[in-house]
User: Which sequence fits this backbone?
C-alpha cells in the first residue's frame, strides 16, 4: 500500500510499504477514506519531537471503512464506516474508566521511554513518535486500529467525511480547550493561534456560553475566519502589543480564560524573549518555545484559567510561575480525551450546531502529501487545513 | 558530601586500580588534558576510600552488601510497584504461573514461597548457579482501586555496578525488565492483551 513515511527533518515521502495485519484480538484494519494533516504533525515534520525513526508512517487524524476485525471485536464488522480517535486507549484501565482516555496506562508499548521524559507515560498515539508507542499512522491506504471494540465511532451514512473526519482530533481538542476554561455567563475568552484547533476552540467557547472571544494570530485569512465566520474580536500580533490590547479590550482586568492553541513552535514579533527562545532551542538547551504560553499566563485575569491545547514536548525557560502563584491562576492541559467527546459532538454536528468542514482549505491526493506538508508549514496559499484522500 | 557506602567490594578494587593508573599516566607527561584525567583518577580513589559513589543514587543503583544468601556476596537491588485494577486473587493467580513472574532473562525460576493472595518468592538459576532472587507482595489499593503489586529483586551483576550503570543508560537493565513485566501483567489482566507494534508496516528498509 501507499503510506506517508517520515525520513528526517523536513523530509517525508510517500512510499510503498506492506499492508497492516491484525496483531492483537481487539484490533481492526481500516481502509482510510480521508485523513488530515494536523498542526502537531508539523512538529514532527520540523524535527522538534524526539523518538522519531526513519520510515515511521505518520498521521493521527483519519477515518474510513472497516475491512477486517480481530476475534475480540464484536461491535464492528467489515463495511462499517468509522472515525478513529487519535488517543489509543484500552477502555479498561484506571484512567479509561474515568474517561481520561489519553492517559490510558496500557496502550503504550514504549512506556519506559515516556517515563524517562515525562515521569509517567500517557497513552499511545498513531504516528506520533516511539515515545508514544511508535504506532503506524493513518496517512496511508490502510491502518491497524488497536482496541477497535472501544475506540472507533460509527458514522451515520448521511454525514460526509468532511463533516465527520475532525471528530478524530481537532474538533474535540478545540472543545476540550474551551471546556477547560470552565466558562461562566459573561466570560471573555482569549485564544492564541487561529489554526483549526484555535478556530474550533473559538466556536466551542461561544457554544459553552462565552460572551466574547478574542482571537490572536498574524495570518489575515485565519483572523478573517475567526472574525467574520465565528464572531470573535481579533488581534494581529504583528501590529498590536497583545498584552496591552487585551487589557484594553477587557476593561483593564484581562480575559477570564486564555487558550494556548499554538504550542512548542510559537512565533512572536519584535519580542526579545522570542529571539532568546529560538537561540536556546537551536542550541538544544530548551526544547520548546513557549512565547504564546507565557503571554497567555501574563494576560489572564487574576483567578482565571489558562488552558493549553497546543503541543509541548519537553522543557521551557522563563515560565512566569510567580504570576500563577500570586494571582491564583489555574493551568489546565492534556492530550484530548477524544473518546469522551466524540458522541456528544457528533450529535451537535447532526443538529447543525457546528459545521466543522469550514476549516478545510485544501484537498489533495495522498501521493501529494509531501507538497502538502511544505505548503501547510509555510502557510502558502492561505493553507489552514489539508484533507488527503488515498 | 559523605553518604552511606554504596560501592561493591569489586568496585572499590577497580576504582583504586583505575584511579592510580590515570594519575600515573598523567605524571609521565603532564599536560592539561592529562591533569583533568588525574583529577578524575583522584576522584575515583576518593570514592573507593569513602566507599560511596554519588552518581549511583540519581542513576537508581542500589547495592545490598549483605544479602540474605550465602551464594551471592553482594547484590544489586531492583524495586518496582504497579497498581492493577483487578481483584487480589485474580492478580495473584496470574503471577503464580512462573512464566509471568518478573524474573531475569535466561534464568530457570523455582517458586520458593507462596502465600495465597499475599506473597510469591522465587529463585532464578543460570547454569546451576543462583543468578537472582525475588519476591512479589500483593495488597489492596486504597479506595477499591484494585491490587498493588510490589516487586523486589536482587541479582549478582556482571561487571559490578559499572556494568549496572551502563545497562541502565543503554536501557537493558533488570530494572526495565521488571517494570516491563509488571506493565505487561497489568495490560493482560485489564485489557486482555499486551500492546505491541511488532509486525506493523514501516518504510524502513
Assistant:
Amino acid at each position: 500500500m501507499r503510506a506517508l513515511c517520515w525520513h528526517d527533518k523536513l523530509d517525508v515521502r510517500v512510499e510503498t510499504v506492506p499492508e497492516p495485519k491484525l496483531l492483537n484480538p481487539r484490533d481492526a484494519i481500516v481502509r482510510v477514506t480521508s485523513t488530515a494533516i494536523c498542526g502537531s504533525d508539523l512538529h514532527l515534520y520540523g524535527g522538534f519531537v524526539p523518538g522519531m525513526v526513519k520510515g515511521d508512517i505518520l498521521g493521527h487524524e483519519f477515518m474510513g471503512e472497516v475491512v477486517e476485525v480481530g476475534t475480540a471485536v464484536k461491535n464492528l464488522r467489515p463495511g462499517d464506516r468509522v472515525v478513529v480517535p487519535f488517543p489509543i486507549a484500552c477502555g479498561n484501565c484506571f484512567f479509561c474508566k474515568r474517561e481520561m482516555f489519553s492517559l490510558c496506562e496500557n496502550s503504550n508499548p514504549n512506556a519506559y521511554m515516556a517515563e524517562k521524559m515525562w515521569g509517567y507515560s500517557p497513552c499511545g498515539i498513531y504516528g506520533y513518535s516511539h515515545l508514544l508507542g511508535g504506532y503506524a499512522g493513518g496517512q496511508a491506504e490502510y491502518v491497524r486500529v488497536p482496541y477497535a471494540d472501544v475506540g472507533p465511532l460509527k458514522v451515520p451514512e448521511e454525514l460526509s467525511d468532511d463533516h465527520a473526519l475532525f471528530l478524530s482530533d481537532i474538533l474535540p481538542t478545540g472543545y476540550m480547550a474551551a471546556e477547560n476554561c470552565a466558562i461562566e455567563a459573561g466570560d471573555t475568552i482569549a485564544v492564541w493561534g487561529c489554526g483549526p484547533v484555535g478556530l474550533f476552540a473559538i466556536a466551542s467557547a461561544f457554544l459553552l456560553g462565552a460572551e466574547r472571544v478574542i482571537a490572536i494570530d498574524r495570518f489575515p485569512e485565519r483572523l478573517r475566519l475567526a472574525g467574520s465566520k465565528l464572531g470573535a474580536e481579533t488581534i494581529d500580533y504583528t501590529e498590536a502589543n497583545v498584552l496591552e490590547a487585551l487589557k484594553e479590550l477587557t476593561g483593564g482586568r484581562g480575559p477570564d480564560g486564555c487558550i494556548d492553541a499554538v504550542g512548542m513552535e510559537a512565533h512572536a514579533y519584535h519580542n526579545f524573549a522570542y529571539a532568546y527562545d529560538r537561540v536556546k532551542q537551536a542550541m538544544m538547551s530548551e526544547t520548546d518555545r513557549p512565547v504564546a504560553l507565557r503571554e497567555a499566563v501574563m494576560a489572564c485575569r487574576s483567578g482565571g484559567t489558562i488552558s493549553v491545547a497546543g503541543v509541548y514536548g519537553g522543557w521551557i525557560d522563563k515560565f512566569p510561575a510567580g504570576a500563577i502563584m500570586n494571582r491564583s491562576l489555574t493551568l489546565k492541559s492534556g492530550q484530548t480525551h477524544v473518546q469522551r467527546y466524540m458522541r456528544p459532538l457528533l450529535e451537535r454536528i447532526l443538529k447543525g450546531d457546528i459545521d466543522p468542514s469550514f476549516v478545510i482549505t485544501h484537498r489533495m491526493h495522498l501521493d501529494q502529501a509531501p507538497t502538502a506538508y511544505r505548503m501547510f508549514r509555510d502557510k502558502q496559499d492561505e493553507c489552514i487545513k489539508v484533507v488527503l484522500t488515498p | 558530601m559523605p553518604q552511606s557506602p554504596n560501592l561493591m567490594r569489586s568496585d572499590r578494587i577497580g576504582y583504586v586500580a583505575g584511579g592510580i593508573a590515570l594519575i600515573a599516566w598523567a605524571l609521565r607527561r603532564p599536560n592539561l588534558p592529562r591533569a583533568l584525567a588525574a583529577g578524575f583518577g583522584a576522584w575515583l580513589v576518593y570514592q573507593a576510600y569513602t566507599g560511596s559513589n554519588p552518581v549511583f543514587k540519581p542513576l537508581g543503583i542500589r547495592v545490598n552488601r549483605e544479602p540474605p544468601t550465602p551464594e551471592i556476596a553482594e547484590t544489586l537491588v531492583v524495586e518496582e510497584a504497579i497498581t492493577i485494577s483487578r481483584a487480589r486473587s485474580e492478580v495473584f493467580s496470574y503471577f503464580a504461573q512462573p512464566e509471568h513472574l518478573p524474573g531475569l532473562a535466561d534464568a530457570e525460576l523455582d517458586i520458593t514461597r507462596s502465600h495465597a493472595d499475599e506473597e510469591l518468592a522465587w529463585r532464578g538459576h543460570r547454569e546451576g548457579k543462583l543468578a537472582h532472587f525475588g519476591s512479589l507482595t500483593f495488597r489492596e489499593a486504597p479506595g477499591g482501586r484494585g491490587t498493588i503489586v510490589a516487586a523486589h529483586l536482587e541479582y549478582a551483576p556482571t561487571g559490578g555496578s559499572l556494568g549496572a550503570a551502563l545497562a541502565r543508560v543503554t536501557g537493558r537493565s533488570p530494572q526495565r525488565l521488571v517494570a516491563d513485566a509488571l506493565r505487561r501483567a497489568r495490560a493482560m489482566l485489564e485489557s486482555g492483551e499486551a500492546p505491541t507494534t511488532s509486525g506493523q508496516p514501516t518504510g524502513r528498509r
About this structure: The longest strand of chain B covers residues 129-140. Chain B has two domains: 9-54, 59-191. The two ends of chain B are 51 Å apart (CA to CA).
